[in-house]
Amino acid sequence: MRSIVLAVLTTFGGVACTASMDDHFDGSKVDASKWTTQQVLSRQIEFTKPGRCGSAAIDIVTTDGDKGLECEDDCQRAELRTTKKIWPSYGDEVWFSFSFKITGDVPSAGSARSVIGQWKGPGDSSPMIAQRFDNGVFHITVQDNNIRRVIAQAEGNPDALLSAQSLLGKLEFNDRNVNAIKSLQSLDLINRNSPEVSNRFFSQHLAQSMGPDAKNSDAKALSQALGLPGDGNLVSQFRALAFVAEPEKYIGRANIEIVPASNRPLPDPRKGWVDMIYRVKPGRTDNEYGPRQPGEIDVWANGQKIVSVRGNIGATMQKKDNFPLVGPYFKFGTYRHRIPGTFHFEFDEFSQSPTRAGLAQLCAAQ
Fold first, then answer.
1. For residue 314, which of 129, 82, 96 has the smallest C-alpha distance?
2. Which residues pair with 149 in a beta bridge?
């Protein structure tokens, strides 16, 4: 296994070298030179055998009684983070690869704000990039300051998703629209996930007002009843985005271009190992210091290109904040609202490098 290659302290041609690191988790012990554990309890760390390629993989386990370390609300948090000495210089191109899967109690509905991997840059409140698992759907999001966008998902229609996000992007962020979108999501999830409740307490007319097959007049009537502007298109197309947590985060304009590759879905991590590769080059055109060009993200899953993203990614760097230009740093594990059951997040074969060629080679599919 390669040792950590530290970033040089001097620069060549004004460009700093990004630290490289591999971890195959075959030693059945967390390497403190690579990972920090202040946001996870020792009893939440297990090792399963065999791993994705080698003898073992790390398993982050969350149970009913677990609380979260450094949580702002009633959440469950169990995450490992890369150590600071391997954080890249902010603005450098960095490649990441890893494998993961999900086992145990995995609800297909009711899962809220479940983050299972994230990249945090300077000034970020929400992660600039996040792997999420809400309402049974694995998806990836990016952030333009406080506005969020799904860039890929494990099921559904990518074109419909982009259309729904575009319509939300045209709304003004205010209490009326926030409450309306939350109500629309609740109605849609009840209608689809609890049809017996919907049939007993709601009229069939309400069900017919939502979804892509809704009549224009019905969708418009529901839109007006909720206090939403427009002709009802958002009501009829919102279903493509209804699985996300915090739908209000998607209201407002985001300077992010999402280009799916051949409408390919992400693999379902409940069905086996998923092999991810990310190319990340942070940037924003409105930065007051740091990188002043559009950010770039490219994502591959199980060897296939999934999506490319360009635009203002992460938080705007303002001189008054004076954040150090380091990151984004990577975290994996579980960070979510409290959910019953025992949840296993298995993770293996992590690699970080300034180039794709520098990533550790992955074994053939098991």
1. 129
2. 142
Angle at 193 between CA 187 and CA 197, to 5 degrees: 70
Q: Which residues contact 333 (CB under 8 A, 6 or more apart)?
A: 39, 40, 60, 77, 78, 79, 80, 116, 117, 345, 347
Q: For 9-19, what is each residue's pLDDT tens digit?
A: 333 333 445 68
Residue in 119, 117, 61 with CA at minimum distance from that of residue 88: 119
Tens of pLDDT, residues 46-87: 999 999 999 999 999 998 888 776 676 678 889 999 999 999
Give dist(CA 310, CA 283) in Å, integer: 9
Tens digits of residue pLDDT in 243-294: 998 999 999 999 999 999 987 899 999 999 999 999 999 999 999 999 999 9
Q: What is the mean pLDDT of residues 240-245?
A: 91
| 21-151+258-353: CATH number | 2.60.120.200
Instruction: Specify whether the CB–CB gap between 235 and 228 falls below 8 A.
Output: yes
Of 263 and 4, the structure prediction assigns the larger pLDDT to: 263
Contacts of 68 (CB under 8 A, 6+ apart): 75, 76, 77, 78, 335
Stretch(es) of the chain classified as CATH 2.60.120.200: 21-151+258-353
Residue 87, Cα to own-chain centre: how many angstroms? 19
| Angle (deg, nearest 10), helices 216-226 and 175-193 | 130
Dihedral sign computed on CA atoms, order 50, 52, 53, 54? negative
Could you please report the per-residue DSSP string of 55-101? S-EEEEEE-TT--BTT-SSSEEEEEEEE-GGGPPBTTS-EEEEEEEE
Alpha-carbon gap, residue 326 to 24, rounded angstroms: 25
